[in-house]
Amino acid sequence: xxxxxxxxxxxxxxxxxxxxxxxxxxxxxxxxxxxxxxxxxxxxxxxxxxxxxxxxxxxxxxxxxxxxxxxxxxxxxxxxxxxxxxxxxxxxxxxxxxxxxxxxxxxxxxxxxxxxxxxxxxxxxxxxxxxxxxxxxxxxxxxxxxxxxxxxxxxxxxxxxxxxxxxxxxxxxxxxxxxxxxxxxxxxxxxxxxxxxxxxxxxxxxxxxxxxxxxxxxxxxxxxxxxxxxxxxxxxxxxxxxxxxxxxxxxxxxxxxxxxxxxxxxxxxxxxxxxxxxxxxxxxxxxxxxxxxxxxxxxxxxxxxxxxxxxxxxxxxxxxxxxxxxxxxxxxxxxxxxxxxxxxxxxxxxxxxxxxxxxxxxxxxxxxxxx
Length: 371
Hints:
The protein is an alpha/beta fold. It has a domain at 46-141 and 190-264. It is 36% helix and 14% strand. The protein contains eleven helices and 14 strands. β7 and β8 (121-125) form a beta hairpin. The protein is globular, with a radius of gyration of 49 Å. The termini are far apart.
């Protein structure tokens, strides 16, 4: 009995050794799975963390810094400010001027789009309308958009109230205003225009902004889309042309790139829109002048007609003209008209003496004398 008792511990020790090897391998494999799951965590950026944030366009290079410009006054009550940003197309980056826009419905606010670096490229996340302000990359667009939320105004019932401490509003025209100082703790001296990546803004969405991302959103209005399209087709707004200082940095209304309400960025050269406008005006008269030669044939017709008319009209018209030109000689003129009237009566008198051969019956009494 002693021998089996000695052999059992040896067998148990071998079994235990096998169990330990299997458990160790299991632990090692489990650790490997965990590292694969959590390894990407440090690489996850704010853009990926925001649900529903779709990338509209991508670029290989970072967008230029935001230009400095003054906000034009609101054109009328009910307009909301949408900050400018750098768009991207076939010719590179171009500036989309900030502008005042009418919201699609009452009670919604504008969350601006932003550029975010992820996966080795810069992607643009389009802006949207919604009941609350969402995440926009922590970019300090100014005029209420300080990187988080919006301090430029708020909805009060069915009307939008403007914060005059931030928004440029004419209080003599717009009366639904208030004044609340905004303390900006997110001041970026370099005016960075993108989130993440080298030199980008290190901002992540808050819990409230994550919740806002799940709310229903409304895309940009057709007027806003037309505004962006017009900006993409304007050579003066190309970053390669203006060097990051667009001459049309902000407008009072969407698509109004000339005239009052257009504000240029600091350091920008005057926009060439005025000379082009002058050329357009010069082309318009040319077109009008080109249209005039066709009717030139019409004056030739009246040139032939007048000589025929004056030939008949002059004899009757000069007499009254003389009477009007000489008011003092009106009495003699009154005597002259009766002169032609007797001339008309004389011709009938001539026929009367013709029938007067009535004295022929006079010889009749002579016949009586012979008897």
